[in-house]
Amino acid sequence: MPASRPMVAVLGAGSWGTAFSLVLSDAGNDVHLWGRRQEVCDAINDKRENTEYLPGIVMPEGIMASHDPAVVLDGADLVVLAVPSQRLRENLEEWAHLISPDAVIVSLMKGVELGTHLRMSEVIAELTGAGPERIAVITGPNLSHEIAHREPAASVVACADSSVAERVQARCHSPAFRPYTNTDVVGCELGGTTKNVIALAVGMATGLGFRDNAKATVITRGLAETGRLATAMGADPKTLSGLAGLGDLVASCSSPLSRNRTFGEKLGKGMSVDEVVASTRQVAEGVKSCESIAELAAAHGVDMPIVNHVAALIRGELTPEQMLRSLITREPKSEWA
Ligand SMILES: NC(=O)C1=CN([C@@H]2O[C@H](COP(=O)(O)OP(=O)(O)OC[C@H]3O[C@@H](n4cnc5c(N)ncnc54)[C@H](OP(=O)(O)O)[C@@H]3O)[C@@H](O)[C@H]2O)C=CC1
Ligand SMILES: O=C(CO)COP(=O)(O)O
Which cellular component, as a GO term, is one annotated location (predicted)? Predict the structure, then answer.
């Protein structure tokens, strides 16, 4: 009899939850995948395909989808969460009692909660009561469609307890996916979340027809302000020069696959925020998180001009052209001030 494979529960059958299920399956796990809609689960189970989010990608037999969180979470020692950040709280209120008290809970999400300003690991801690040694974050340059096609990629598994990070790393190290460990959860989460806002700004520059100098400027200065916030919140500055910072920023800001960059590009081409929201079902986390990051930065006395300008634009106070002009014509300063 073949040895049984360990099981992982993945909650969220959108692009990343589904693509990460493939990583976990390739790494030797069986996967129980929760989908919000029955038809998405049926397509995965019956056609072996998530026709809506990853069309054309074959889902291996070791991935089973269900709409029932109790079925998905039963017996899972590793629980991976991949729903839109602003929707995590309401879902965890339903799921928390179904999660084994020993399970390690992994966030794949890149957002900061509106109102509370909590990072996703903090929302998980609040709703499940899990300590930092049971909460991990996986983040990096991981565009889901590339991952689903088994193109090579690296990522970071961050957990305050390095031995837990190593256990999670071992569970998701596949022939195409190389995870590194880190204990800097704050830096890893802020890198991924703020990247989405910077990608919106890069998309706007692209949509307006500006070329590589403008994009490189927004990326580099975006990384500078991300670093200021992260260090003010206790992160290790090194984290921002790694996969969870620079790596993720470069991937999203350069790729037409990035939803945040594409969202910004449509704004730059003249669509309104409401029109872009209506044009896609997929989540562009930066559209919501720009406001919570701007508030978080203000609370820590940190200057984040790009994030503040994107937030003002999303509130309807600026056009993309005004936003970029305003950023360029600010009071001059030292590069490292
Ligand atoms: N896609 C990527 O390349 C990457 C994404 N991430 C992060 O992963 C997280 C999930 O994103 P991703 O999978 O890409 O998102 P998608 O936009 O691809 O899919 C969204 C998923 O969330 C579900 N959903 C929508 N509303 C709710 C709700 N109220 N409660 C529960 N589920 C809901 C959708 O279900 P339905 O279809 O029924 O609407 C769908 O399964 C985000 O934080 C994102 O930043 C991180 C790295 C890479
Ligand atoms: O975080 C991502 C890749 O690592 C995905 O970025 P988008 O949400 O902008 O598509």
Answer: cytosol
Low-confidence ranges of the chain (pLDDT < 50): none
- Out of 54, 108, 248, 276, give the residue to mutate to test ligand 2, the one with the largest number of ligand atoms within 8 Å of its CB: 248
Same domain for 171 and 37?
yes
Residues 162 and 199 both lie in one domain: no
Residues flanking ligand 2, CB < 6 Å: 110, 141-143, 196, 199, 248, 251-252, 258-261, 285
pLDDT digits (tens, 9 = 90+) for 143-199: 999 999 999 999 999 999 999 999 999 999 999 999 999 999 999 999 999 999 999
Full domain range(s) for residue 37: 7-183
User: Are the C-beta atoms of residues 44 and 35 closer than 8 Å to each other?
Assistant: yes
Query: Nearest Cα to 156, choosing from 204, 191, 123, 195?
Result: 191
* Whole-structure pTM value: 0.98
Mean pLDDT over all residues of the chain? 97
ipTM, 2 dp = 0.99
Q: Is 2 a member of any domain?
A: no
Q: Which of 47, 195, 288, 333 is catalytic?
A: 195
Which of 131, 154, 183 is the last residue in one of the domains?
A: 183
Which residue intervals of 74-232 are DSSP H helices?
A: 88-95, 120-128, 144-148, 162-172, 185-207, 212-232
Q: Is 288 a catalytic residue?
A: no
Show the 3-state SS of 266-332.
Answer: HHHCCCCHHHHHHCCCCCCCHHHHHHHHHHHHHHCCCCCHHHHHHHHHHCCCCCHHHHHHHHHCCCC
Boundary residue ending a domain (183, 214, 238): 183
Residue nearest to atom 6 of ligand 2 (CA): 258
d(CA 268, CA 206): 7
Q: How far apart are CA 155 and CA 143, in angstroms?
A: 11
121 known ligand binder: no
> Could you tell me the two tokens for 211?
């070329």
Residues 222 and 73 in one domain: no
Determine which residue's CA is closest to atom 20 belonging to ligand 1.
14
In a domain, 337, yes or no: no
